[in-house]
Design goal:
Shape: elongated
Structural class: alpha+beta
Helix content: 40-55%
Strand content: 5-15%
Number of helices: 39
Radius of gyration: 35 Å
Length: 988
């Protein structure tokens, strides 16, 4: 008990010290600032969401604005500098721009993690930002704006019709009206598409735009984690745009380009600029889509907010509304329209819009990162050196509402921006008016945004009188976009616990939404607690779920916090593996590695999906033809001789019996076989205690602590796989296999050796397809891993079953002797693969001793499976679907008396294994297009070893074997604790 308490106190102390480590950062530098709260820093509303976060800025600004030019603050535990004086804000944005040119979030995202946002100029840094900005800038020239104006007018007319069609007594939700308008405008100008926001209840582009910008808990969590540990920015890259949205906008862009080119359409819009840019700069469809989404976000969200807030202020101020209406009507054409030039030259319209942007700036604050250490004046007599990497925050909201710069700041007063008062220029020169930022990184789309908002305001104000409806709560409050609702004053501990709880339980209602039954998950553990506790193997958790829902074709459960689907019904299993394979073509592991993080494992067909998988499979399939396996049979014979000699040498001199760990013995055998067939080397597993290739093989299959931790992290937060790829094969192991493959190739070529083995196939493949040495090594490791580990376990279990059933063992031995007699003292390859009893024994062993608990697939497209009685089961794209092979193997509904070892159930008279495969209840090697490629080779080497052992030895179970079996929770594959010990006695 004392030890437990000590460890707990130590852990809590460590956490506290870590969280509070930087809390005196600004104190040491004599920079004033508020005291940070543990974990929450000085901006608790970012996490608690109990009030609009701008109020945190406002409180700090009001408290310190008269005391210093800058103030030291903390975003979570990360120190940042809050600039309080407009003249210093100007310095950051303009004068010292080179020292603060990057936005704060620039290093939290990458093109790899988020191809869309990763190409957004807002997220880019340095030269890459300059290049991207240079590409976009020509799209916003006056000539192009003028060319886009008719498209904006067209949408404005549709908005007018929409308003007129609404019931006169019903109020219109202005925020939604403006969002429909700006969505249609930017869709037309970017993608040359009619978004139909005014005619459809849920127009697709509108919904995708909403999804693009709606709050996302996982993104919030990533920001919190990065705030707690900024170093994570180098490891974790945030993905703002989901794959679904990315694909939607990419397809939209590709279709728009294709239509325009095929139909020779000429239209001076943003799409035309992108097409011309593509030919000059060789832009990809993804680059174009990213440009399009950048424009879409700027033109859709910020513009709709600016327009909505302007209408709100005009509705509150009837006199201003009347003054504006008179100006607009006076500038109108006879048909009620207005020209581009006339619209942009209206002074009062400018004043109204700028005043609305002052009160309701699109960005409440700007956050830059110091890229060059810079001195800043804290007070008249004191300066501080801002270190590289420190965020510098500019509180736009607070400055815009400061009475020192704007008289009566809470009052909507367009006249403050009148030409007589200097317009906006006077305020911009002071650095206190920044609705679109300032300096080189000022918003590129500002002119377009203002143009479309002005045209929208013209249409509304000239046709309608607007007023505030009683449904609008006054005074207007910003929506804090609550994810975590905590009363004001809740402590850090409660807030943190609430955050953790919400994260862990976020998906727990997932299966209820789709009407799929399943067990209630436990917080932190989900329904597979052994994954964390390691008390027992996870197979027992899966088996319990399977048996608790016997009447369900599929069961929804949770792996820690991730929803997964267990498909129980054999017909649906066949659907997943074969009939609807295109919707479940990826293994669950497929998105965890890539060729950069793990060059060898990423080339294994098991880890691949889509076209890459097809290509790799097509390359490797010819390596497993019947003729090639037959040609490699003599290599197996050589290893069998060495294995028999090894067993005899281990025998006790008195009894003549060798007691051996069968798993280790069979691993030596399969290591030597695959090393010979792939790398053309003698692994010497039977001669040396720990040959290098044997050790390296173990390192591939036995995941180290770091790998296990990585797998655990992805179980807690699957989205990590979208922006971080793991390395499962250690670097030295990777280098070893590449080196021995290169050595084998060099030796064979230099000595002109012809040998029909797997290496020979790889050399032919290299000649035809110019694949690299790393590709060849990847193929070799794929073959090695498959042929070494799984085959050795199947062999171990087969020998155990034969040792337990002496009558079956003797019957098989007799069959072997008869076959050899027919073959004149030797057994041919054909005889080996066609021995009926041996085939039955292997099939029954692989049924009663499954190597894995479940087979996991990834749903690649939204799918509806139709179960018994036309029961519809919706499977969402990205969902892990598991096929419970272990539990099916012991289900009496599919295998009568399932605990009994009975090879005859697979006899030809009973339909063989084919019968069970057709029923969807027997798939030890998988089924369908992704069935194990090396199956025939694996079975051949397994059969050859069994023949060798039974011909020479009588085997029995040694007392060191712990029975009944309890699966080892530390092993991924199903192997019992303490291994399987057998006695090998030479046959007289």
């Amino acid at each position: 008990m004392l030890l437990t308490v000590t460890l707990l106190v130590t852990a809590l102390t460590f956490v506290y010290v870590y969280l509070a480590w930087y809390s005196n950062y600004w104190t040491k530098r004599n920079v004033p600032g508020p005291t940070p709260r543990l974990l929450l820093g000085n901006f608790p509303s970012f996490i608690l969401r109990n009030r609009p976060f701008v109020e945190d800025f406002q409180d700090i600004y009001d408290k310190f604005r008269s005391k210093a030019n800058v103030v030291g603050v903390f975003n979570n535990r990360q120190p940042a500098l809050l600039v309080l004086k407009p003249e210093l804000m100007k310095d950051v944005l303009i004068k010292n721009f080179k020292h603060f040119q990057d936005n704060e979030f620039a290093d939290s995202i990458s093109k790899e993690s988020d191809p869309i946002f990763g190409r957004n100029p807002f997220m880019l840094k340095g030269e890459e930002w300059k290049e991207k900005r240079a590409e976009v800038t020509p799209a916003f020239t006056t000539l192009r704006m003028k060319s886009l104006f008719p498209f904006v007018e067209d949408v404005a007319h549709r908005m007018k019709q929409y308003i007129s069609q609404q019931k006169s007594q019903e109020p219109i939700e202005t925020r939604e009206l403006c969002a429909k308008y700006t969505t249609d405008v930017v869709s037309s100008c970017i993608f040359a598409a009619d978004a139909q926001s005014f005619s459809k209840e849920k127009a697709e582009i509108r919904e995708m735009g909403r999804k693009l910008l709606e709050p996302n808990f996982q993104i919030l969590l990533m920001f919190i984690l990065i705030g707690v540990a900024p170093v994570l920015k180098k490891i974790i890259k945030i993905k703002f745009v989901s794959k679904e949205i990315e694909q939607f906008f990419t397809n939209l862009m590709e279709n728009a380009v294709t239509y325009r080119e095929q139909n020779n359409v000429k239209r001076v819009d943003y799409l035309e600029h992108l097409i011309s840019l593509r030919s000059k700069k060789q832009l990809t469809s993804l680059d174009m889509a990213a440009h399009g989404v950048t424009f879409f976000i700027d033109g859709f969200e910020t513009s709709s907010l600016a327009m909505a807030f302007t209408l709100y202020e005009l509705a509150k101020s009837p006199d201003c509304q009347t003054t504006l209406r008179n100006e607009l009507l006076a500038a109108s054409n006879e048909d009620g329209t207005i020209g581009y030039d006339s619209l942009l030259e209206l002074p009062y319209l400018d004043q109204v819009l700028h005043e609305a942007l002052r009160i309701w700036p699109p960005a409440a604050f700007l956050s830059k990162v110091c890229t060059v250490p810079t001195e800043v004046q804290v007070t008249e007599s004191k300066t501080v050196l801002i270190e590289r990497g420190i965020p510098v925050m500019l509180p736009v909201w607070a400055v815009h509402r400061d009475g020192e710069y704007f008289e009566e700041p809470e009052r909507f007063n367009p006249d403050r921006f009148s030409p007589a008062n200097g317009g906006t220029k006077a305020y911009r020169e002071k650095g206190c008016f920044l609705p679109f930022g300032d300096g080189p990184r000022q918003c590129l789309g500002m002119r377009f945004a203002l143009m479309q908002v002005k045209r929208g305001l013209f249409e509304v104000i000239t046709k309608y009188e607007i007023s505030i409806n009683s449904k609008t709560k006054q005074p207007l409050q910003l929506d804090p976009k609550t994810f975590i609702i905590c009363p004001l004053g809740v402590g850090t501990g409660v807030a943190f616990v609430a955050l953790v709880y919400l994260f862990l339980a976020w998906e727990f209602g997932f299966w209820q939404k789709y009407g799929i039954k399943g067990p209630k998950p436990r917080l932190l553990f989900g329904n597979i607690p052994n994954l964390l506790t390691k008390k027992r193997h996870i197979v027992y958790n899966y088996d319990a779920i399977y048996n608790d829902y016997k009447n369900e074709p599929a069961v929804g459960y949770f792996s820690i916090r991730t929803p997964q689907l267990m498909v129980r019904d054999p017909e649906l299993i066949k659907e997943v593996l074969s009939k609807s394979f295109h919707n479940f073509s990826a293994n669950d592991f497929s998105d965890t590695v890539d060729e950069k993080s793990d060059p060898l494992l990423a080339r294994n067909p098991f880890s691949l999906s889509g076209e890459k998988w097809k290509t790799r499979r097509a390359e490797i399939t010819p390596g497993f033809t019947n003729n090639r396996i037959k040609a490699m049979a003599h290599l197996m014979d050589e290893v069998c001789e060495r294995m028999a000699k090894y067993v005899k040498n281990q025998a006790n001199s008195n009894a003549g019996t060798a007691t051996l760990d069968a798993k280790e013995l069979m691993a030596k055998y399969t290591t030597d076989v695959v090393a010979s067939c792939i790398f053309a080397i003698d692994a010497q597993s039977f001669e040396r205690e720990n040959p290098e290739i044997r050790l390296m093989g173990k390192r591939i299959m036995n995941f180290n602590f770091v790998v296990q931790l990585a797998l655990l992290v992805t179980t807690f937060c699957p989205s990590v796989k979208n922006f971080y790829k793991f390395s499962f094969i250690p670097k030295d192991t990777e280098e070893f296999f590449i080196r021995i493959m290169q050595d084998a190739i060099r030796y064979r070529k230099e000595n002109k050796i012809n040998r029909t083995d797997f290496l020979d196939h790889l050399l032919q493949l290299q000649e035809r397809k110019q694949i690299t040495d790393v590709d060849i090594a990847g193929h070799g490791v794929s073959f090695f891993a498959d042929g070494f580990e799984t085959s050795s376990i199947v062999l171990t279990y087969t020998l155990y079953d034969l040792a337990k059933h002496s009558a079956i063992q003797q019957e098989l031995r007799d069959n072997i002797q008869k076959a050899k007699e027919i073959g004149g003292g030797s057994m041919s390859y054909e005889q080996l693969v066609e021995m009926p009893l041996l085939e039955q024994i292997l099939c029954e062993t692989m049924r009663i001793h499954p190597l894995i608990a479940v087979m996991s697939k990834r749903c690649t497209a939204d799918t509806t499976l139709v179960g018994p009685k036309d029961r519809k089961i919706f499977v969402k794209k990205g969902t892990t679907v598991v096929l419970p092979y272990y539990s099916i193997s012991f289900d009496p509904e599919h295998f009568p008396d399932p605990q009994k070892y009975d090879p005859s159930r697979f006899s030809a008279d009973n339909g063989g294994s084919k019968l069970y495969r057709e029923r969807g209840v027997y798939f030890p090697f998988g089924d369908g297009p992704r069935m194990c490629l090396g199956m025939r080779f694996a079975l051949t080497q397994v059969k050859r070893a069994i023949v060798e052992i039974l011909e020479r030895f009588s085997i029995s179970v040694n007392s060191k074997t712990i029975e009944p079996f309890e699966m080892d929770p530390e092993q991924f594959m199903l192997m019992p604790k303490g291994s399987i010990w057998l006695d090998f006695k030479p046959v007289a």
